[in-house]
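User: Please predict structures.

Assistant: First:
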Amino acid sequence: MTKQLEQGCNDLAVNMDDSLAQRLMLFSEQLQMPLWLIIQNLLLADWARRCASFEVEGFSPPRIIPEFAREQLEDGTEQVITGESLWNSLVEVYKKELIAQKNNIATLEAA
């Protein structure tokens, strides 16, 4: 493992959002799999979906990468949205996408 990857893993462990850590640990317990495997396979699944999307639809940053959106703070600086705020935002975005897909399928089936 490279020094950069090792440092990144250490930073992840130290700086991980508490709510995400709790979700990951619960998932790990429920599946009876080690935490590193849960994180690794979730990343692989997500990146594989992105790769397939890029290959089929082309690269579209605003739609493809909402988890790196920034918000402006009161002091004028920007920060990447994360933690529970990002979780709630992404759940809503993905629900809307799934509803739209479901409606499109229903429309096609009715035609």
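Second:
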Amino acid sequence: MASRKIIIYQRYATKPVILTDNSDRTKEEIQKDILNVLKSDKIAILETATDSVVIRPSEIQAILISNQTDQEIPDNDKKHKSNYDKKLTLEEPK
């Protein structure tokens, strides 16, 4: 069972929406489902095995799908990762 993190970056949002998926689906299957949601001009539900979110596809700027493992971030770098996540925001254009 692969664990994946799906990060949704929205227009004008200060923080991204982060979903986790622990299903046996391949990354390609997840991408296909997300593309179908984004093609729609209606509000949709993006659902994973563990989370779901109601989204407006026209407000989505980007979606990142990554494999999640405990080995990705060494213990001594978790503090730096935490600081990076705090700084990661989408700002409203001026």
